[in-house]
Prior knowledge:
- The chain is an all-alpha fold.
- Helices cover 84% and strands 0% of the residues.
- The protein is built from four helices and no strands.
Amino acid sequence: MDAALRKRIQGHPKYRQLVARRMRLAWFLSAVMVVVYYGYILAVALMPQQMGAPVAQGGVTSVGFPAGVGVILTAIALTGVYVFHANRRFDGMIRDIVEETR
């Protein structure tokens, strides 16, 4: 990519809008993941009795296990949210930018 094309793309208003939207979404999803992850870690650290308690009476699976699986599923779901937005909104904006800067 030559410098002139790069400059035209970077100066395009839709490019700036795309970068801002993508950045806001990334920060929001990252914040959600940080809260979920550190919430889990804090629960393990500060409530070991509750997290180590069995899920069912006489069972061997502790409450911490499904909570940990929930953290992993949350990460997968947040990735899906990002991919959804990337495919539905960001790709269209990128196509528009490419068409308009040719």
